Amino acid sequence: MTFRRVLTTADVALKLTLTSASGLMPTFVLTLVPMVALTLALSPRLSHGAPAIQVQDDRGRTVTLDAPARRAVTLAPHVTELIYAAGAGGYIVGTVLGSDYPAAARALPVIGDGTQPDAERVAAARPDLLIAWQPSAAEPLTRVMDKLGVPVFYSDPLTLAAIPGAVERMGQLFGTEPVAQAAAQDMRARLDALKARYAGRRPVRVFVQAGLDPIYTLNDTSIVSDALRLCGGVNVFGQAPIVAPQVTLEGVLAARPEAVLAGVSRPEDTARNLAAWQEMGLPAARQGHVYGVDADALYRPGPRLIDAAETLCADLDRVR
């Protein structure tokens, strides 16, 4: 199987520069050659007439496949979840540490962690598609994939509303559109129901606990804050200049949150958080308003964040 390399603006500019600099072609040829090259490179059909697959990723790049992906490697747990939601989990041949949902994902071959994937393991998996999250972590590997002719797709949903579309795009990449579209339709219906139910509710001031010792939080650029907004919550550190700032206990107390939200790995973690905040003198904790949501569901920009949002909305109603 062969793959078509995505033609970027930089590629076009380089082609025009090199051709013009040679000084060996008439003007009409200088104009015609780049146009023909662009037409061939960007054509949505293969030479034998079968339609190519073209999908825009979250970096704005158009990624082209000659056929639906059948051997994908994922570089982030949320990507794995999106693919399973789209009905294409059986086409994943490698993933990173932490890709543990759904249960079937735990049996997938591991090619490293999300920050340092092993290029040799990835190449040995013979992928026909690499799906990454953060460019900074993936770029060394993507250079290897470029040499192998393997397309790279970036997935980074920044809002709850973007998650159904992310599932649909996975369906396009793997040729499982009916399953993906049905899943996305259900997700949109659930989000619409939350929006309708909680619109106009009294705002609740919330401290998002991303770490307790030391104390870390998240600002409004995080997808967690987007879930808060849907439920009528207000992030008390939403205007912080960085996405995950360290804050002081004095700062938290001064912000006067009415509730604390934390991602937890086990139910008993919520009880520990409640006791800790009560000991630190937080009024909201004295009233019992310290809530825990499954950390992986809350922090991953995947389908389960909608589950987390439903839980969060119900928790904030207890504060009102």
Task: Explain what you see.
It is a single chain. With 320 residues, the protein is an alpha/beta fold. The protein folds into two domains: 53-182, Rossmann fold, CATH 3.40.50.1980; 201-319, Nitrogenase molybdenum iron protein domain (Rossmann fold). It contains 13 helices and twelve strands. Strand 1 (53-56) and strand 2 (62-65) form a beta hairpin. The longest helix has 22 residues, at 177-198. The radius of gyration is 23 Å and the shape is elongated. The termini are far apart. Pfam families: Peripla_BP_2 (PF01497). Keywords: Membrane, Signal, Transmembrane, Transmembrane helix. Residues 71-320 form the Fe/B12 periplasmic-binding domain.
The unreliable regions are 1-47
Give the radius of gyration.
23 Å
**Helix content bin:** 40-55%
* CATH topology category name of the largest domain: Rossmann fold
Mean pLDDT: 87
Instruction: Give the second-level CATH assignment, the architecture of the largest domain.
Output: 3-Layer(aba) Sandwich
CATH class descriptor name of the largest domain: Alpha Beta
Give the neighbour order of strands across the main sheet. 4-3-5-6
Largest sheet: 4 strands, parallel
**Helix-strand string:** HHEEEHEHEHEHHEEEHEHEHHEHH
Transmembrane segments: 20-42
Domain Fe/B12 periplasmic-binding: 71-320
InterPro entries: ABC_Transporter_SBP, ABC_transptr_periplasmic_BD, Vit_B12_bind_prot
Protein name: Vitamin B12-binding protein
